[in-house]
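Notes from the 1:1 (GR / supervisor)

We went over the backlog. Supervisor wanted to see one worked example end to end before approving the batch request, so GR pasted a single chain during the call. The sequence is below; no edits were made to it. Supervisor asked that the structure be written out right there so they could see what the output format looks like.
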Amino acid sequence: MMKEAFITGVGNTAFGRHEGLGAIDLMAQAAQQSLDSARLRRADIDGVLCGYATTLPHLMLSTLFCERFSLQPRYAHSLQVGGASGAAMLMLARELVRSGRCRNVLVVAGENRLSGQTRDSSIQTLAQVGDADFEVPNGASVPAYYALMASQYMHETGVTESDLAEFAVLMRDNARRHPDAHLTSPISHDDVLASKPICSPLKLLDCCPISDGAMAIVVSADRPEQATVRMAGAGQAHLHQHLTAMQDVMQCGAAVAAAQAFQEAGLRRADIDYLAIYDSFTITLVMLLEELGFAPRAGAAARLRHGDFSPEGELPLNTHGGLLSFGHCGVAGGMAHVVEAYRQLTGQAGDRQISARRHALVHADGGVMSSHVSLILSREN
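Structure output shown during the call:
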């Protein structure tokens, strides 16, 4: 019989600009905080999973981090599936713990993408997710890929630019309650619609910022004495890599990954009472909410306006502010959704704590809705 896996500790730096700190420095700060949270020593960690960093493209980043952080694990691995990397690492950590291979796995990622990389370099690096023969040579950027997908989705469903703007405002309102968020200045619906065009239909405030920062999470075999969060289910799906190979904007793979997670957890969609959904762009969030079945097609904004996704609503969504406002520093940006879900489930969210919740769905995607990972977290006590 497979063992259970629990999240026992989390840690993070603030997101924003950290002049003079490199990827390893930021990762170390978050990692130490996660160990303190889990009440573990470095010697207790026997597995390390590390996300990639575009500012430190080392071939052996996981073991480099272990050397710098004084860890000697029995298992170490670096992983990259774009924005889904954090959730994929957690899924792997769960399997390592459930199989008995490891007892305490440190999952860590971070980078100084804002202070350690020029804007042009970042744009060029990220654009490589495109097809090397048919997309990259035409000068497309990641916002351009998502804008093309958004145009198709909006044409087929009737989702509007005004609908997208609603989510930018919600994420900013949520981020204003978090002391570590990158963007906290208030914005209005009109501000979003009037912001600088980036690639039609996406405007500046439809896009996440580039940040410095790091996140770390400990996954353990032993049930902690404090509030317990079990990794109840997980699933992945990879239906395409490039935008030009996408078969159907209505079925990108999110629903497939989530179905696996629900089956493993023995839960239904109706059991979920907190949502942690990847939001690199407003269109990402809308498409994922609707494909995952938490809103009908073209109905996500209506649920938001009804208050369902607010901190006081039926399904609180990204109460830390998501990538759109908490910030995005690569792999750690997606991990922030898990850290916030853990804190909400365990009552450790401080001034932004919502009413008691039992089951959270985390969903992350990488590339252009290319790699999908769903996790279900359940509070046990």
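Supervisor's comment: Residues 23-38 form the longest helix (16 residues).
Batch request approved.
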